């Protein structure tokens, strides 16, 4: 049968490349004798056993090795980054200050981060191990003229290998004989259609690898036919070996969020340490306190100012985002990844199975009189035909039976296909070749049932005559039915006088990126029982079918939403550029679709590629190395890049990208191990939800930071201002510890439950170079810090001046800091005025505030808490009235700031 070899019947066949071989020899151009000379082998008898042993000793086994790092070293390496150093210093400092709870919390955060990093690194190692396992097989080899079955790891360059249907190709080979030989190369290319191979030398000087029809590659699979090939590369020199090396060479990049957090953490730590040193020196000069008291005050300032809860808060926000994504069938393998997708401005995706259904479908039928549009996509039999592009003819629904040629074409489609369709796991599953699946589906759409075939004989597809044929009895007649290359079949028919009509039809079909198959028939005598390929002629051409892997409807919707969100979607595929362009246009990938091919990329150096990479949105005939270079070039232009893929060939690019996204169902284990995120249901539309959630997560992290910094700095400023003014400290160290601890357990987590703001997908991706905070944010942090600390100090001085005990003033100042945080929380929750319909949107915030107030009641009125935290029972006015009034002052001032910021100056986000 013709099977899926129809991919080579027209110029729009799918092409799939892998990396160029390490040497410059054009192996595809050499004839058999030249190959035998080059590899010092015998094309009939193979290598001698002794020579094979020598080569194995010299070159090593045909297996991929992975460099292993001990698990202990991998774990220790996770502590080697700036934010861990800062956290460790804070943990040690709080421990020696006897703030054991803070020290324990920070220590747990450090260990949790290390474990997460360790698991990620082990997963990358697992991806390499998966690739290594792909070369483990057994194959038949000819040595000393004898056919032997050996372990593929024992193969050497120059070995003569026999390949049959079902074999795994064990090494890169140049074929010297091929009989209807087809190889499934999707493991390398991502494209699912088997590739027809040949043994003849090819004359071109610079063929792309996909066009080298006389070469096969390690880890691919033989789907039909048989062949002999001479091994040209083993182990790491094979194409799969190059991919493994690429995966190994790619260094795991730090996510934009973590880079921003690291930068912020380092900056804050330096600023706090410098302030502490200056404050200590100034205190020494002023001689306000004794040296021990001054040291305690400075350490108190550092502890109060350091936002120790920031890493924990960030981790919890990310974890909540990860949980939300899991509910949407998106598995996030590392916490920062959930935010990274919200920052991307380029989503690279493969075509087959991601943007398309990976289910070949007949979409056009051309008969001698009419053109039919076939509705329905994929292997689902829901659909029908539209007549000449119109749903109705003369106001009536079309009856395709009115076209006799169409009737014959449907019969031939059903009688010449061997594909079967089964409804399993809530989807149609194909048994057989994709092109046959398309014809079976066409038959079922038109008739409503599966074809029944009374076969007499079949003639499989052969590249020598480029068609297949079947002899069968149907409706009381014996028919010879043929399908194959349009040019070939047309010569065997009675349509010679209509060549122009069929040429125009083929041009129209191929212009739409369709693969074209011709179907013809002939009534023969009942005594005919065999098919003679040489004697076929005088056929009646029923028509042409145009087949394509159709785009997913949900993919088109997702692309539109991503474009609206300011995210560019780029297609990277091994397919032919015409087919890729056709799909891109159907999906409305961009306003202007521009394509470039892998060979054209190979002709550029890295600088040239970087300069031109943004001009293209379709990358056709792309190799694994092309994909890796594309991602790197985009990153060099300061893009935050997502890469979506499912094949082994995608693994290097998945790992290189800022966020790698693998398919959960059709994705290979290598791809899933290399990625940061897995789409459990293979639905590209899930990326839109992930981008939305990523932006939501970033907004909540940013709100958390904007909340934590001024409230933490306010605690430090209370100490600084008191030292500068020569006053007693309004707050005790244990009270500062309480503020940090109670905030870490309650109020700062209110932002976790803040819902996404309207229009979150209408704005462009954030500028990761601008950091987490803008100049306006820093200004806001400054005035809010001074406002809260100033209110606390003023109230303390006011009460103590009235003659009240210091412990009363201290307890009230403690409450003022807490209520300043509470009211500032309401200001930061969203961009709307505090009194609006959004006030009760985050109900969890009110529960959290309620818990915080209960804790405050405990610290103020429970005797054992009073003794630990230096508090006392106070009346409502001193203890609660003044703090509430101060909190309202904070809210009014910050609401005025919000009004000026958003109404007059425009929302700045994090962009200066």
Automatic annotation (TrEMBL):
Membrane topology note: Multi-pass membrane protein
Domain spans labelled Cation-transporting P-type ATPase N-terminal: 26-99
GO molecular function, one term: P-type sodium:potassium-exchanging transporter activity
Biased composition (Polar residues): 1-21
InterPro entries: ATPase_P-typ_cation-transptr_C (IPR006068), ATPase_P-typ_cation-transptr_N (IPR004014), ATPase_P-typ_cyto_dom_N (IPR023299), ATPase_P-typ_P_site (IPR018303), ATPase_P-typ_TM_dom_sf (IPR023298), ATPase_P-typ_transduc_dom_A_sf (IPR008250), ATPase_P-type_domA (IPR059000), Cation_transp_ATPase_P-type (IPR050510)
Annotated compartments: Endomembrane system
SUPFAM superfamilies found in the cross-reference section: Calcium ATPase, transduction domain A, Calcium ATPase, transmembrane domain M, HAD-like, Metal cation-transporting ATPase, ATP-binding domain N
CDD domains cross-referenced by the UniProt entry: P-type_ATPase_cation
Family: Belongs to the cation transport ATPase (P-type) (TC 3.A.3) family. Type IIA subfamily.
Protein name per its UniProtKB record: Cation-transporting ATPase
